[in-house]
Amino acid sequence: MIERDGSLCAPFDGLATRVRFADLRTIGFTSSVFGEGTSTIALGTALSLASLGPTPVLLVDANWLQPSLTSDAGAASGRGLAEVLRGQAELSEVVVPTGRPRLTFLAAGDTTEGRPPLGALPSLLDRAQTCFGSIVVDLPPALVGEAMVLPWAASLQQLFIVVRSGLTPLALARRAVEEISVERPQVVLNWVP
Amino acid sequence: MRPYLATARSYFWILVVVLALTWGPGVALAYVEYTTSFQADATIWTQRGLLHLQDDGRLVVSPELAPPQDPSVATLMTPAAEQAGSLSELLQTRSFLRDVAVRASLPIPASPSDERKFLDDMSKRFKVEVLGTNLFRLSYRAQDPHTPPGAVTAALALRQEQSVKARVAAMEAATDSYRSELALAQTQAQAAQTDLEAFDKAHRPPLGPLAEYEQGQLRVAVEDARTRIADLNARIDRSAVMAGIVQKADSLDFQVVDQPIEDPRPSGGTKPAAMIAGSAFVGGLALASVLVLGCTLLASRVGAESDIRRLAPATLFATVSKIPPRKGPTARELRTSLAKAAFGQRPAEQARGDG
User: Fold this and answer.
1) Domains and CATH numbers, chain A
2) ipTM value for the complex
3) Interface test with B, best of A163, A167, A177 (most B CBs within 10 A)
4) Is residue A6 within 8 angstroms of chain B, CB to CB?
5) For chain B, which residues make up each domain, given as ranges?
6) B310 contacts chain A (CB < 8 A)
7) Which residues face A31 on adjacent strands?
8) What are the pLDDT digits (tens) for B41-74?
9) Closest-CA residue in chain A for B303?
């Protein structure tokens, strides 16, 4: 068993604790454009939530435009979310355990056949919640992949908009907030000096 | 445009202070420059050498002036431009400037580096302007009204002295050459005379046709030698008076039409003062523009937690702090480490690795 590296997850502990205390079980991270650190925050938060315990955590790579977590996991050619949404695989068949206890990963899957239908998202999340205490979803930027983000925004308990401090143009962040149009849009300010 | 105007309005007083700090000293410096500038100038009428020294030592009227210059003949450089150019070059040499300073009784600093600075500064204060084909102006600007006339007069006098000295040196060289030629010619004449006298002693009249021819040849040689001596003597005599003629000719070729005069009122500082004021004005505007541009760009990015209010109705849920560069990894390194921690040692791989 690998011991938790405190300094590595430390930047995300505050965020994970807030998520836990707000009793948010399904959360997603998006941004206005690429390069805001969304995937890093999703990964870090999932690691931090898993280390907080005791419930298992599922990290989902739903960023089909740039599935960097799937690449990191070395699962680029494997089955994943896309196959589950198409009904070609069961969730239990495609999730993979990670090197961390209580953390499981669902790769993006194969999107070369076209974008998978997102109508099954609510039922997928319901099924996932029966096995996992927290579900963390990495999403594409809202202004780039709006069609991929909005269904998740409607299904997740909370969708966070990641804004990188000193880098994200205010106008773009504002547009992202408007595009998502959820009831309580919330921002995670990343890389604050 | 609107964001920039909004930023300018937000930082109005800072911009006012910046402009005041640049324009204020600029205007003050320009005023000081204007009120402490005193200039004197001399206008010079010039033409190309009126007299021209020929190879045979004769002074003749320059071919450009006799017959009078044909206006249709294109001249590459006007006499004024030529003289102004040579004077400008002289005024860039420290030795010439040092002579000018000595003659104008300007205090030259003792230390070599200070002297160099002083002479360089002096060089910048001289200005040569071409006014027309034959007219040009030499001016000098100083911080007191007494110095400029002396400096201009000294520069012109030195230039004239140098010019005359060069021409006189050329004349003296020509005279020396004539003298050596004269000595040779006198020796040749003496030899020819001796040959003639020896022939006359050896041959008594009546002479035969051959002897008569030989005697005629010897007499011609004596006459030639005498003529050469007379010619060289004439040239040497001409050279003796030539120095005076050259000096006179130079004074005709280079006439100071308007002498420099001392003007107690500030003059000549308008352009430098305008340059200083203009530079300060442009500099202030540029600085203010950079400030507005920079602030607009910074202000239009989400920087601090307080900026999240501008994203209403969105609220701040949490912040993720940047790891100080000395204490931890960069953003890219953090991502790599997180990925390695999460996916680097998957149970399946571990099992395979354990074999």
Assistant:
1) 6-190 (3.40.50.300)
2) 0.89
3) A163
4) no
5) 77-251, 320-355
6) yes
7) A162
8) 999 998 766 555 565 555 555 554 444 445 554 4
9) A166
List residues bridging with B285 in a β-sheet: none
Which residues are CB-neighbours of A83 under 8 A, at least 6 positions away? A89, A94, A109, A110, A116
Cβ distance of A14 and B328 shorter than 8 Å:
no
User: What are the tokens at A145?
Assistant: 């992949």
Query: By the CB < 8 Å criterion, does B322 face chain A?
Result: yes
CA distance B340 to B342: 5
Check CB contact under 8 Å for B322 and A191. yes
> Does residue A179 carry a pLDDT above 90?
no
Please give the CATH topology (third level) of the domain spanning B77-251.
Answer: Substrate Binding Domain Of Dnak; Chain:A; Domain 2 (1.20.1270)
Token pair of A121 as six digits: 């998202």
Identify any residues that bridge with B65 across adjacent strands, giving them in sequence order: none
CB-based contact A8 B313, cutoff 8 Å:
no
Q: How far apart are CA B153 and CA B100, in angstroms?
A: 9
Which chain A residues have a beta carbon less than 8 Å from that of B318?
Answer: 14-15, 18, 188-189
Neighbours of A1 (CB within 10 A): 6
Distance CA A70, CA A75 (A): 5
Q: Tell me the whole-structure pTM to 2 decimals.
A: 0.51
E strand map for B77-160: 126-130, 135-142
Predicted confidence (pLDDT) per residue in A27-76, tens digit: 999 998 888 899 999 999 999 999 987 899 999 999 999 999 999 888 88
Token pair 């501008």 in the structure block, residue: B310
